């Protein structure tokens, strides 16, 4: 069976005057690399200017987003009501959590090792804080005297 006719079409030549065709493409990494000159989530952020402070801010933002994903996960587990308002609240928390998780994933796809480490550390610290009960509601058993 011959391939579809679309596969046999010659490649399209760039049309003169098309916007964006003459712009230089940013460097895309296909393997992990070290360095503070990165492009994470947005064009020119944290930037290629050699500004280490913006790179550190980027790492802090990725860390905080990853920790927030874990905090939202713990918060959703704490609600076990079947009332419609509670179900809608849990659904909203889940939607925000998944959106943030995808943003963290896209940040890691910059292939910068620092961003990867910040994401893993954020998830770890967020999970740890959720497990030790920072986000847990107090129960009557917590107030009872221990023997």
UniProtKB/TrEMBL annotation:
Keywords annotated in UniProt: Copper, Copper transport, Ion transport, Membrane, Transmembrane, Transmembrane helix, Transport
Record bears the keyword Phosphoprotein: no
Coiled coil: none
Main location: membrane
Bilayer disposition of the protein: Multi-pass membrane protein
InterPro entries: Cop_transporter
Keyword rRNA processing: no
Gene Ontology MF terms: copper ion transmembrane transporter activity
Subcellular localization(s) per the UniProt record: Membrane
Domain of life: Eukaryota
Family of this protein: Belongs to the copper transporter (Ctr) (TC 1.A.56) family. SLC31A subfamily.
Protein name according to UniProt: Copper transport protein
Source organism per UniProt: Lolium multiflorum (Italian ryegrass)
